[in-house]
Amino acid sequence: MSGLKKRLAIVTSHPIQYNAPWFRMLAGSAVIHPGVFYTWEQSAAGPKYDPDFNAQIQWDIPLLDGYEYHFVKNTSPDPGTHHFRGLVNPTLNAEIAAWHPDAILVYGWSFDSHLKCLRHFHRKVPVLFRGDSTLLDERPGIKRQLRRWFLRWVYGHIDYALFVGARNKEYFLAHGVRERQLVFAPHAIDNSRFRSDALLIPPARIFTMTLGM
Q1: What's the predicted TM-score (pTM) here?
Q2: Number of structural domains found in the chain
Q3: Is 141 left (phi over 0), alpha (psi -120 to 50) or beta?
Q4: Which range marks the domain in which residue 65 is found?
């Protein structure tokens, strides 16, 4: 059965609690075989500093169970997601090609390797892109125009953009992505996990939490 599945190479920086359940779900489907290529190789070592949370983070749920994954060698002298050259993976494109994907999904363009991956596989296999940027923080002026021009060039290398909501869709359209290239893919959570955790909370505690006590 696995031979009939479409092989989807997923390029993302590091294991994230929101994505792991989705990757496991894809792996359990009858039509898609995902292979996740993590570009922040150093994140495999365990707890790490996460710039989004401004703290050392170690999640209490398994992030690597139930799907195929690869940590790709990152040669950046300052590894991480806090700057463009934080993810430099010279072998990434070759490793993906050797995996023989039918399509590629790239999370974010603002890292050296991710942008190179978009450019390398453009017109070779379908390239999907996921990001949740909006136009809400834009300011008028020459910088905005230059950024618009640059992002039109970036998104000229993708076949489909997975947008999370109306504002995100507006952003992609403003940067040259066509309506027919947009696929609605909202953020999601693992409902079954939260439901099972809620069952462990005593009813009296739920009542006091609801009342803010």
Answers
A1: 0.85
A2: 1
A3: left
A4: 2-210
